[in-house]
Every structure is written in structure tokens, then in C-alpha cells.
Amino acid sequence: MSAMLNRSGAGFAPPSSADFDFKPIFGNSIFTTKPVFLCFLSVILIATFFILSARKAAIVPSRLQFAGESVYGFVRGTLGEAVIGPEFMRFVPFLFSLFTFVLTNNLFGIVPFLQFPTMSRIGFPISITLCVYVCYHWIAIRKHGFIKYMKDVCFMPGIPAPVYIILTPVEFATYFVTRPLTLAMRLFANMFAGHLLLLIFTLGGEYLLKSGALIKIFSLFSFTFAIGLSFFEFGIQCLQAYIFTLLTALYIAGAVADEH
Amino acid sequence: MASDGDKGKSSLPNNNAKASAIREDGAFWSIFAYLISGLLFWGGMGALADHFLNTSFLILIGLLIGLSAGLGLIWMRFIRQ
Amino acid sequence: MTGTLNLVGYGLSAIGPAIATGMIFAAYINGVARQPEARSILQPIAFLGFALAEALALFGLVLAFVL
């Protein structure tokens, strides 16, 4: 229906995936677009926050130190120790930087004037998923040796031999294709859909505001919805950062475990 | 968020329950991954076979094999203990 | 506006597994909340129910694209 309205002239143009393409801010390179700068900004913000919060560490923490430490304590306790087990301390820096990076980049989606979750461009989730992928396979191969790891992954004990023809490819595909793929897709799809949802309500409100006198009132509903959904999005963004790090921790836990 | 007060105590049963709840969460995503990869792999095999043999029923057989392979793996990994 | 009715059909058929998954988890959480030591008994049953409901949903998704 929206396509028909568009064809007839001045109609509401719904947001599409074209709204996620940005022109380079300067030059003609894909490395100078808004998401890339947001990514750099997130690194600067995270570094500044945690350096400031850890610089004057005291036994009675200041408010800033308490904020920094509670994030660290959350990642270390809930995602590190509870999931990975006794060897967790080696992986806490990785999990912590992953969690803060994903969380900050997601939260850019509802910060005024930035208003773009970096993770809604598929390249960013894929690249951090690649880090996770290399990390947990490398740990497992270092621990068990390549051949034993492959045997553990592909051949379950206690099955008659002919069944392996059916089950082994599925196991292999799960470990090496589906798991990283779903890890990246889940984060990307949530951020993409969330940003699109906010765009629909803000652009719709703007369009209603431009039309006739009586219809202007309805734009109020649209903007109210957009603000309400921003809070909803805040929840989703935190949850997705948590789930991403949690699944990473679970995969690492599977890699350091003695048997699968 | 885990408050820092809890960390000092770290009562064991509570921690264990939390850990097993978290593993459960991971298990649900693993179940999902097994089903998807079973369907994709064997369904893809069926589609390829259809393409080269000029038939149209093999993809259905492939999907059913993939579904049962995925369910079988889930049965062995998570249910039979 | 163009598209295929398969996706509408899949959207309708996804309602069933969605409700099923919700009911499975509701029952599981209820059971564990009432009797925490029953978790190890209830867990495989919840996994099995979730796997079956999810299998139907995914099968529908694949068929929506294939047919």
C-alpha cells in the first residue's frame, strides 16, 4: 500500500534499508562514514570512562569508581566465574572488552544526535564474531590438539557407525557455521529492527506534523510512542550485549571443558 | 547487575543454581542451532540432488532427514543424560 | 507492492509454535518455582518440548522459502 501511495505523488515514504547507508563525511572512502566514527567514539568513551574510574582507586569507592567496578564485577561474576569455571580469570579481559564495546555501540541507537546503533551494519557484528570464533576454536585446539578436538566435535560416542554419516555433517555445521552465524545475526537483526522501529515512529510523526491541521494532533501519539519505544530499545540493547557476551562465555566454557 | 556485596559471600548453592540457569539459557540457543544446521545441511543436499537429477521430491526427504538428525543430536546431547 | 503469499502463510503458522514455546516455559518456570529440586527432572522435558515446537517453526520457515 505504501508503494502505491508513493507512486501517486506526495505520500509517506516509509524508512527502508537505504536509511542505513551513509555518505562519507569527507573524502570518498567507506572508512569515513558515520558508523566507523561511532565505533572510534565508543572506544574513546570506554577507555576514558574506565581509566577515570580506576585512576584513583580507593577502599571507599567514589561514585565513578563504584560504577566502573560494578560493571566489571557483573562481567566477572555472572559471565566469567559462573559460566567458565575455575579457569575464568584468563578470559575476563576479553569478555569485559567485548561486553562494554557491544553495549556502548548498541546504546548509540538511543543517544540523541548520534542515534545510530553501530551494530545494525552487518560488518561490525561479523568482525567481532570473527574474533570470538578464532578465540574459542584456538583455545580448544591448544587444549586438546587438533585431531582430538575434531574427533570430539564430530563423533559422539555410543552411536552405531552408519548413523555417523547423517549426524557428523550436522555437528560440524553447527560448530563451524551455524553458531557464529547465529551469534552475528542475532545482534545485527535486533539492532536493525530496533532502529527501523524508531525510524518509523519518528518519521511518521514528522510526516503527520506536516499535514493538515486536525491530523497534526496525531503526530503527538506518534512521538510519544517513539519515546516509549526508546526505553524499550534501551532494554533490548542491554539484553543483546549481555546475550552476546554470555554465549561467547558459553562457547569458551565448552572449549576449556574436559569433554564435550 | 551483581552487587559487590554478593561477591564476598558467594554462597555455593545459590551460585550453582545461577550457573545451571545460565547453562540452560545456552542450551536453548544450542538446540536452535542444531535444528537450523540440520535442516540447512540436509535440505541443501536434497536441493542439490534435485537440481542435478531433475526431480522435485528429494528436497523434502532431505529436510526430513535433517530434522530427524537435528532432533536426534538434541536428544543425545541434552535429554538423555 | 509485490511479494509471495508463502510468507503470510508462514507468519500465520509461526503463531502456533510461538504460543507453544511460551506455554512450555511458563509451565517449566512454574514447576521449578514450586519445587526447585525438580529442576533436573523437568529440564529434559522442557528441552524436548522446546525442540519439537522449534522444529515445527523452522520446518515451516524452510518450506515457506522452498515451495
Automatic annotation (TrEMBL), chain A:
- TM spans (from-to): 35-54, 94-116, 122-141, 153-177, 183-201, 213-233, 239-257
GO CC, any one term: proton-transporting ATP synthase complex
Protein name according to UniProt: Unannotated protein
Keyword match Transit peptide:
no
- Molecular function terms, GO-annotated: proton-transporting ATP synthase activity, rotational mechanism
Its predominant location is: membrane
Which InterPro entries is this protein grouped with? Answer: ATP_synth_F0_asu, ATP_synth_F0_asu_AS, ATP_synth_F0_asu_bact/mt, F0_ATP_A_sf
Q: Which CDD domains match?
A: ATP-synt_Fo_a_6
Q: Per the similarity annotation, which family is this?
A: Belongs to the ATPase A chain family.
Source organism lineage?
unclassified sequences, metagenomes, ecological metagenomes
Q: Does the keyword Cell cycle apply?
A: no
The alphabetized UniProt keywords are: ATP synthesis, CF(0), Hydrogen ion transport, Ion transport, Membrane, Transmembrane, Transmembrane helix, Transport
Q: Which organism is it from?
A: freshwater metagenome
Compartment(s) of residence: Membrane
Annotated HAMAP family: ATP_synth_a_bact
Pfam families for this protein: ATP-synt_A
- Topology class, membrane: Multi-pass membrane protein
From TrEMBL, chain B:
Stated name of the protein: Unannotated protein
Keywords attached to this Swiss-Prot or TrEMBL record, sorted alphabetically, are: Membrane, Transmembrane, Transmembrane helix
Q: Where are the transmembrane segments?
A: 26-45, 57-76
Originating species: freshwater metagenome
From TrEMBL, chain C:
For this UniProt entry, the molecular function terms from Gene Ontology, in alphabetical order, are: lipid binding; proton transmembrane transporter activity
- What PROSITE patterns does the record point to? ATPASE_C (PS00605)
Record keywords: ATP synthesis, CF(0), Hydrogen ion transport, Ion transport, Lipid-binding, Membrane, Transmembrane, Transmembrane helix, Transport
Q: Which SUPFAM superfamilies match?
A: F1F0 ATP synthase subunit C
Subcellular locations according to the entry: Membrane
Which Pfam families does its entry note? ATP-synt_C
Transmembrane intervals: 12-33, 45-66
Question: Looking at the UniProt record for this protein, which Gene Ontology cellular component terms does it annotate, in alphabetical order?
Answer: proton-transporting ATP synthase complex; proton-transporting two-sector ATPase complex, proton-transporting domain
Q: Matching InterPro entries, A to Z?
A: ATP_synth_csu_bac/chlpt, ATP_synth_F0_csu, ATP_synth_F0_csu_DDCD_BS, ATP_synth_F0_csu_sf, ATPase_proteolipid_c-like_dom, F/V-ATP_Csub_sf
Q: Where does the V-ATPase proteolipid subunit C-like domain start and stop, copy by copy?
A: 10-67
List the membrane topology term(s).
Answer: Multi-pass membrane protein
Question: One of this protein's GO BP terms?
Answer: proton motive force-driven ATP synthesis
For this chain, the family text in UniProt reads: Belongs to the ATPase C chain family.
Q: What does this protein do?
A: F(1)F(0) ATP synthase produces ATP from ADP in the presence of a proton or sodium gradient. F-type ATPases consist of two structural domains, F(1) containing the extramembraneous catalytic core and F(0) containing the membrane proton channel, linked together by a central stalk and a peripheral stalk. During catalysis, ATP synthesis in the catalytic domain of F(1) is coupled via a rotary mechanism of the central stalk subunits to proton translocation.
NCBIfam families reported in the protein's UniProt record: ATP_synt_c (TIGR01260)
HAMAP family from the UniProt entry = ATP_synth_c_bact
The name this protein goes by in its record: Unannotated protein
**Taxonomic source organism:** freshwater metagenome
